[in-house]
Each structure stands twice: as structure tokens, then as C-alpha cells.
Write a structure and sequence with these properties.
By secondary structure, this protein is α+β, with helices and mostly antiparallel strands. A hairpin with a 2-residue loop joins strand 8 and strand 9. The longest helix is centred in the middle third of the chain and has 22 residues. The relative contact order is 0.23.
């Protein structure tokens, strides 16, 4: 069909309309994907932690030593993340696509980024609102945070991963802001070998790795004062013990649409919510590399 075939008598060219809106892919929370999940049936939960050491050889018939374990616990407080979206019943009838589907997907993506930011990058003690949790950045302390003062180097990565590899807990994971991706691809060791395997993740679904440890990327891995679904600040690379990234799951994410329109506005409402908790088990459970500008 030629261009002229599309014209009509008055010279106007008809436009083809699609029914699918342009929506971004729903983002996933890196912390939820790799952390240790704890199902919460109350608003607060205590995850037990016991410390005991020492192995003894005992003569046959001898008294077996009694070990004193040090009981401890990590406290999880579940907070509710929630928002509402309104649409008039008239617009809903006229729409060529379901606006609530778009709202839901956008909220889920924003929640994933905001949750990761609250868990990984906020500075300052938790206050239950602008800083929902005490983040990894705050928990590890300044002595375990490397500022790059320029681009990421092999030494930055080697030191952060190396320190965590000496930790007996094992099971390391790296969570990084996507701005680190190209730097990781370019890093080489002294022998000239690349230390990261990131390219194949988009080809065959394999997990990206650095030094053999899995890598997850998150737009929430940013150093911020308060948590945000579009955080701006220094990008972070976090090396952590997976089992020590403790995620409390009370409910959701879940959605509900009001059954009747609001009397004063004729609006239907979509409500989105999720109740989550987070804690880093201990200060030695992670190391942070912060991408900062050079001198």
C-alpha cells in the first residue's frame, strides 16, 4: 500500500491506534531477590542469633564440656508502604486500556527501587518514616565504606570482596547500582583477565558474576539522606552475606479496587500496599564501595 493509498478525500491521513500503553518492565527488588526472607505473622519479629565457639576432644568416659551460648536476636519491625490511585468511572468506560494495570505496574517498580534504597543506602538511624530501616550503609559504619574518589578500580573491588571472603558466614552476593556495570565489565586482574562475567546474563539467562559471586543490579543502591523511588546521590556497590540481609515479609505486595465509586467524585480507587521489614544481621555482614568524584 502506497502513501497516497492512506489518504482520504480531504487530505487527512488516518492514524492507527494501539490498545497497549507504553509501560516499562516491572522492576524487581534486589534485596528481596537475594536476601533471607522471614515470614512475619505479627508487626514485630525477633530472629534468633546464637554465638558459641570451641570444639573439644574428650576422653572416653570423660566429662563432656558444657558450652555457654550467647543468645541474641535481630529485631524486625514491619512497616506499611501504601498508596491510592483514582480514576473516574466515565474515564474507565472510555479508556482503551486498563489504567489501573498501568498504575499497579508503575507502583510495583517504584516500590522495588524505594525498598532497596531504604535497605541499602539511607544515611542515619531508622525513624520509621523517611528512613524506614537502618540501612546497610548506616549499619556497617564509615570504616567499612570505601570511597572511590574517581572510577571503580580492581583494587576497590578486590579489597571489598576479599574482606568478606574471610568471613566464615559465606554465601556472598554483590548488589550494585547499574552505573557500575560498564566499570565491572572493563575491570581486569594483574594477569589481564576480566573479573566480571556480566554480558551473558541477557543472552541465556545465566546469573552475572564477579570473582565467582552473583551480582544483582538495583537503581535503589544509592547513598541518600531519605529513601526514594528515584534516589539521587552516590551510587553504591554492596558486598554482603546473603543470609544476613534479613527481609521480613508481613504481606503483599497486594492490590484492591474499590467496589463502588466515591459519592462526591464518581471515582474508583486502586489501593496498593506491602508490609516489609529489613535488618542487617551485624556490622561485619557487609562492605560498601561508594562511587565518589575524584579530587
Amino acid at each position: 500500500m502506497s502513501f497516497t493509498d492512506l489518504t482520504i478525500a480531504n487530505g487527512w491521513i488516518p492514524v492507527q491506534f494501539g490498545t497497549d500503553p507504553l509501560l516499562r518492565d516491572v522492576q524487581k527488588s534486589a534485596v528481596e531477590a537475594v536476601g533471607r526472607k522471614v515470614k512475619m505473622v505479627t508487626a514485630q519479629a525477633k530472629v534468633p542469633r546464637f554465638v558459641a565457639s570451641g570444639i573439644d576432644v574428650v576422653a572416653e568416659g570423660g566429662t563432656i564440656p558444657l558450652k555457654d551460648a550467647t543468645p541474641d536476636s535481630v529485631i524486625l519491625d514491619a512497616l506499611k508502604f501504601a498508596d491510592r490511585f483514582a480514576e473516574s468511572t466515565e474515564d474507565a468506560e472510555d479508556a482503551v486500556y486498563d489504567a489501573f494495570v498501568a498504575y499497579r505496574n508503575e507502583w510495583l517498580s517504584n516500590f522495588a527501587i524505594a525498598f532497596d534504597n531504604a535497605c541499602l543506602g539511607t544515611a542515619g538511624a531508622a525513624n520509621g518514616t523517611t528512613r524506614p530501616f537502618t540501612s546497610v550503609y548506616q549499619s556497617v559504619g564509615s570504616g567499612n565504606i570505601q570511597a572511590t574518589a574517581g572510577a571503580l578500580t580492581f583494587e576497590h573491588l578486590r579489597d571489598a570482596v576479599g574482606e568478606m571472603e574471610t568471613n566464615r558466614k559465606g554465601g556472598l552476593v554483590i548488589i550494585a547500582h547499574p552505573s557500575f556495570a560498564m566499570s565491572l565489565r572493563d575491570l581486569k586482574d594483574a594477569a589481564g583477565d576480566r573479573v566480571a562475567a556480566l554480558g551473558e546474563s541477557g543472552l541465556n539467562g545465566s546469573v552475572p558474576t564477579v570473582f565467582g559471586h552473583s551480582v544483582a543490579f538495583s537503581y535503589g543502591a544509592v547513598h541518600t539522606t531519605t529513601f526514594s523511588d528515584s534516589p539521587s546521590g552516590n551510587p553504591l556497590l554492596v558486598v554482603a552475606n546473603k543470609s544476613d540481609l534479613i527481609v521480613g515479609v508481613r504481606s503483599g505486595p497486594e492490590s484492591q479496587v474499590s467496589k463502588d465509586e466515591q459519592w462526591s467524585t464518581d471515582n474508583l480507587e486502586l489501593k496498593m500496599r506491602a508490609r516489609r521489614a529489613f535488618a542487617l544481621a551485624s556490622a561485619d555482614s557487609a562492605r560498601v564501595v561508594e562511587l565518589t568524584a575524584g579530587a
